[in-house]
Amino acid sequence: MRDFNFLCPTSMIVGKDKELETGKWVRHYGGSRVLVHHDSGYVKESGLVERIKKSIADEGLTVFELGGVVPNPRLKKIYEGIELGKKENIDFIIAVGGGSVIDSAKGIGLGIPYDGDVWDFYLEEDGAWKEVPQEAVPKGIVLTMPASGSETSFSSVVTKEDELLKRFCDNDLNRPLFTINNPELTMSLSKFQTACGILDIFSHSFERYFTKDQGNELTDRLCEAIFITCMDCGRKLLDNLQDYDARASIMVAGSLSHNGLTGMGRQDDWAAHFLEHELSGEFDVTHGVGLAVIMPAWMKYVYKEHPEIFVKFATRVMGCTYDYDNPENTILEGIARFELFIQTLGLKTQMSEVDELPEMTEEVMWKMARRVRVNNDVGTIGWFKKLTHEDMVNIYKLAK
After folding, report:
1. Where along the chain do its domains lie?
2. Checking CA distances to 342, which of 55, 276, 351, 366 falls within 20 to 30 Å?
3. Domain 190-399 falls in which CATH fold?
4. What confidence tens digit (pLDDT) does each residue in 266-281 have?
5. What's the N-to-C CA distance of the chain in angstroms?
6. Whole-structure pTM over 0.90, yes or no?
């Protein structure tokens, strides 16, 4: 087990009608001039935004509103929020929605107290962040789509639309002070949205589970608990989208999968995410759709680096019987069962099957690979297996 520091300052407030307490929690954490940020979709049409604004106003606080966030949140909307925040002296932000809204709110929170371009925080120069934030406007979340885990994480992922660049800023200032998780608010999600969210939750522990670090029995089991919860509750939700307990378990799994808990004592990888970010940055596909094609391809490409953890995944998570004569058979069966799980969610595991994607040429694959944010000291991504640009293209080919 590696040495580690673990931080999770976000309060999780879970239960029915808890969004009606939003104003109370904002006041508790010292907010007075509050920006409610959302996507202008169902959360607005359903009256949820108005209920939240009322709960804030009822505490004697001043409320402002900014909608219009889209999937793969755009830098342009963040600039709009920063301008509003500076003008109105916003001192607290409430994000109402899923990962895109939350990541946009984090960008706004970083940009309001900063005199430069907030995009500086998302860029690297010579192997280091171009700029590191020193302060941020605090945030709270009313979660309506469990998927990204952004409600408890230190990450913000944003797309610069004019360059098709999808980049992230990892900093503890991004961590929300609280997240309100009412499972009933997720019951309007379609099967497709639910499926994409479940795979996204799975992926955050997936990126931490596949490591060469040894002696991590506890965090191995924590990751496996997330995986099994995603699979069991995912199947229940596909049968009944109104299953409250399954919705609640998925919400909690999403928050725990990306707050750092399942990465304690081990080196994260994140190669699959980096490869997917270029895919969704280039073609604006849903993150879960991109992960569905990239994750199995990555597994097939790297498993020989440390087959023992793949055997563990196959037997403990996917229910495979260990083949003592040929452990590789166990690994490949585990990957095949994982692909089948993705397919049972209604997602595709090959790019050629995804309607939103064009026919993928090698030229496009190289374009995406060259744009991946690499570790500048070695020019690779990933830690389980360090991937060169050629490796990245080969994974895209396996996913084709």
Report:
1. 11-185, 190-399
2. 366
3. Dehydroquinate synthase-like, alpha domain (1.20.1090)
4. 999 999 999 999 999 9
5. 36
6. yes
